[in-house]
Every structure is written in structure tokens, then in C-alpha cells.
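agent> Task received from the user: take the single chain below, predict its 3D structure, and emit C-alpha cells. No templates, no multimer pairing.
agent> Plan: (1) validate residues, (2) run structure prediction, (3) serialize to C-alpha cells, (4) report one or two observations.
agent> Step 1 OK, no nonstandard residues flagged.
tool_call: predict_structure(input=
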Amino acid sequence: MVQILADVHIAEARIETNVLYPDTALMVFNKEQMQILADHGVEEEEFRKTYRYYLNNLAQMDKLYEIILDTLSVREAKLRSTDTTGAPRPQPPVPILEGMKQAY
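)
tool_result: status=success, residues=104
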């Protein structure tokens, strides 16, 4: 769950930064979330059931998010350590859903 939610938050931040329209952002996010679940071999219903469990057990949710924050911090540190110039690393483009035109 930690790795999945860390990936979800990274995708969410990337989409918020790169997609201008809320409706488009939501569609892109939903597609990305499904891909993240597939990458981790988790069914959507299994993820939702587990997430509901944590919503009903907030003390455990707090502990889970402490680990998620640590995980994100480690990922960020690794990315920064690979950039020797100190310049911000470019973000990969957000994939546009098939059949959609990018808004200008």
C-alpha cells in the first residue's frame, strides 16, 4: 500500500503541474491510477477496500502516511543525488488519453 500511494501522489503532483483543465486532469489521473494498480498487481476493488479500511482506522492511516512521507523523501533524495548540476530535473510528460487533443 505504501508504494502504491507514493506512486499515486507522485502522479497526482505531476498531473496538477502539467494539466490545465480539471476535467482533463481527472481523466488523466484515473488512467494513471489504474496503470499504477496494474503495475503493482492490485485490483481496483482490492485497493478501494484497503483504503476504506484505513479511512475507518485513522490512527493506522497516520502511521501509513508517516511511512509514505519517508518513502517519498527517499525517492526525492535519490533523484537529487543523480543530478550533478543542481538544476531541476525535467518532469516526464503526462500522457494524453487516446483520442484527446492537448489543450493549448
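agent> Step 4: summary for the user.
Helices lie at 2-18, 22-39, 44-56, 58-82.
agent> Done.
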